[in-house]
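Can't paste images in this forum, so I'm doing it all in text. The chain is below; anyone willing to post the predicted structure tokens underneath?
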Amino acid sequence: MQNIVIIPTYNERENVESIIRAVFAQRQPFHVLVIDDGSPDDTAGIVRQLQTEYPERLFLEERKGKLGLGTAYIHGFRWALARGYAFICEMDADFSHNPADLERLVLACQNGADVAVGSRYVKGGNIENWPLDRHIFSRGGSLYTRLITWIPVKDSTAGFVCYTRKVLETINLSAIRFVGYAFQIEMKFAAWKLGFSIVEVPITFIDRRLGHSKMNKGIITEGVIGVLKIQWNSMFRNYRRRVTSPTPAPPRPDALFSDTVVAK
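Text version of the structure:
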């Protein structure tokens, strides 16, 4: 299996079963990894029940406490890399991202993109059911990000993304500092700074119908300040993962006194 979708959850019992089944209903096969942050509504329990139906396609990682969106995705990225997935997608659990668009994101990466972003702000993209203030915050945040960082992505805060394996292997995931609104920006910024190609695929974003939004003033504030920090820190550090050379094995005792060179 090459494709996996990472879905972080916190109190998503109204949505989690439906979103998992919708992902599995796509023509292209996907595995799903749910990362639940100790949801009091027993979201994880619903996933565990579904695992009996999809034992080889559905996986669950349970964490203690609400640790943040960014750390959930980092946890998921590392989990997926360790298991050899080639295309690693992220999406919300609340159907704001249409599972039918997953195939288009993966196809964009199969056709040469390193990162495919499900974008609301390119031609063909759209948003449904959002109040005016959310439109202003989102569009303003993306414009603000482009002005500060120069990143050539119109929807830098998008959370519907497909990464190729080589991108996540190259980025030093430990250097990604933000956990909320700014996490999505920092991941795209890191990929762009490392020279990876980013393609925006138009999607229609639909505001959740069930459950409660996780957006709050703290997340927005993190985004505003975080963009400045991302640009500033990029002047002093590289997002590339450090690859340490393996320690050479000590020579065999008999080789220390050998005058013979053996060709291998």
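DSSP finds eight helices and nine strands in the chain. Strands lie at 3-9, 31-36, 58-62, 87-90, 115-119, 126-128, 161-164, 198-202, 204-206.
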